[in-house]
Amino acid sequence: MNATIPDLTGKTAVVTGATGGMGQVIAAALTHAGAxxxxxxxxxxRVQALQAxxxxxxxxxxxxxxxxxxxxxxxxxxAQTIRDRHDQIDILVNNAGAHFPDHRVSADGIEMHIxxxxxxxxxxxxxxxxxxxxxRARVVNVASDTLNDTRQxxxxxxxxxxxxxxTGVSNLAELNAAAGFVPFEAYARAKLMTVxxxxxxxxxxxxxxxxxxxxxxxxxATDIIDDLVPRPLRPFRALIRGSLLSPxxxxxxxxxxATEARLSGVTGRYFNRDIETTTPPVSHDPATQHKLLALSExxxxx
Length: 302
Known about the structure:
Blueprint: E1 12-15, H1 21-32, E2 36-41, H2 44-54, E3 62-66, H3 72-85, E4 91-94, H4 112-127, H5 129-134, E5 138-142, H6 183-205, E6 211-216, H7 223-228, H8 237-242, H9 247-259, E7 270-272, E8 275-276, H10 286-301
Helix pairs in contact: 1-2, 1-9, 3-4, 4-6, 6-10
């Protein structure tokens, strides 16, 4: 894979979720290509595996900032640390995410899918505004095509896209409420929010050459998959994982969007692996985009 990535010597890349699965592959590939890679890690012990993957000869180009990206305070602090150390960012890959099998809230009272799968990405895209603009950065958001179809078993019926109704919503804590909570739909809604905000931010950042794109990496054999497998199929999880893409294969689209020359200037798009495709109409609705950005900005302004 390294042969397909251009020389990134002198470039700075921020990669979240870099201590496991696909994130390790992305961070290691960018480091091997010469980039200085910054990651935010909640568990220092997991960084050792990433350092081992990178290798002792290049691990000096890996920088770790401590923080729990589900917490507003930690996202703000991590962004401040990165801004203080790096005047320019060339690549931002928002890869951090998780699926939670039950209703949980963050330290800030936000449902955890929204806190980690959406607000962490939004926070870094906006709090690192200056360095991203100075670097004419490529921002890559790792989403999931569950946003286009929230059915876990897709053998019959039509796709059921994730929904995002912000009518009357005054605080992001109101979304993915405990009443009627469906984990898979909550996860898909958070990914839909990431794509929706990304479309809006792509327009805001375009004048300074920053691009913002999102992708579905394919069905990748990562830890998230274990929670996403429907209950009737859980006895077959090992077999299912064996039929899925490897983390290395899953990382390919993110790396292409972050580095490939022919994609320079491409922005505001969503890719299902290598194919540019559509997302639910609500994600393109200007009123929904405006309201989502306002709610998100208020979250970080507190």
